[in-house]
């Protein structure tokens, strides 16, 4: 009897030493394992309830088999993928930094489009001015008298201004 009592005392001492030596990591591990076990049990209960509901479903045609475990796993995987996509979409909506970057990129594209448009308009104006210059040059070659008179008038005006400045 004392031998059995000694064994009990020894195992209590071991349990106390294990408890004293338990690190927070081990405690968290045990808690996590307990939560996982509870989650697995809850999933099993849900599957059972779904199976019962499926059996009681009046819309199910008679003779149709229950979905197999592989089919259920496939449906679960598909649902997880859809949920993942939904979570990604929600995360993207809440990612302010990414939204700001997207807005900046959008504004850059609009600015570049405007620059390209202005460049094109400038090139068109340049082409029109060049055409007008070519036409004017051709007219001056055909009939230089009006242009020579205008040039002479400008030279005379400049000489008059120069003369009046020196006089003062």
In short:
With about 170 residues, the chain is mainly α. It is about 90% helix and about 0% strand.
Characteristics of this structure?
mainly alpha, disordered N terminus
Write up what this structure looks like.
- The protein has 168 residues and is mostly helical.
- 88% of the residues lie in helices and 0% in strands.
- The longest helix has 47 residues, at 96-142.
Any chance you could write out the topology, listing elements then pairs?
Elements: H1 2-21, H2 24-55, H3 69-94, H4 96-142, H5 145-167
Distance between the termini: 139 Å
Please provide the count of β strands: 0
Mean pLDDT: 81
Q: Ranges with pLDDT <50 over ≥5 residues?
A: 1-8, 11-17
Largest sheet: none
Radius of gyration: 46 Å
Helix percent reads over 70%
Hey, roughly how much beta strand do the residues contain?
Answer: under 5%
* Sheet/helix structural class: mainly alpha
Number of alpha- plus pi-helical segments: 5
The backbone outline, from C-alpha atoms, is rod-shaped
> What string, H for helix and E for strand, traces the elements in order?
HHHHH
């Amino acid at each position: 009897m004392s031998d059995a009592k000694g064994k009990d005392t020894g195992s209590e001492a071991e349990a106390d030493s294990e408890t004293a030596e338990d690190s927070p990591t081990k405690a968290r591990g045990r808690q996590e394992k307990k939560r996982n076990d509870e989650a697995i049990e809850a999933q099993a209960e849900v599957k059972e309830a779904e199976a019962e509901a499926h059996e009681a479903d009046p819309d199910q045609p008679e003779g149709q088999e229950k979905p197999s475990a592989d089919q259920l796993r496939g449906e679960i995987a598909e649902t997880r993928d859809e949920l993942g996509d939904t979570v990604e979409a929600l995360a993207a909506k809440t990612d302010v930094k990414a939204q700001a970057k997207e807005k900046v990129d959008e504004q850059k594209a609009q600015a570049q489009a405007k620059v390209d448009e202005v460049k094109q308009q400038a090139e068109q104006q340049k082409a029109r001015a060049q055409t007008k210059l070519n036409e004017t040059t051709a007219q001056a070659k055909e009939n230089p008298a009006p242009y020579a008179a205008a040039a002479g008038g400008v030279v005379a005006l400049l000489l008059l201004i120069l003369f009046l400045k020196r006089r003062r």
